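WARN no homologs supplied; continuing
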Amino acid sequence: TAKMKAEARIECLRQGGVNVDEFLQEAETLSVQDIPRSASSLS
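OK structure emitted
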């Protein structure tokens, strides 16, 4: 599924030394502020 692929990519980034969790927190914070409410139905 798409979720499994996304999780696999995140795991690869973690193994590569990327601070994935911090990035995702920032992305969530930005999306709440910047993306129109209509986009929230996708999540």
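The mean pLDDT is 72.
OK
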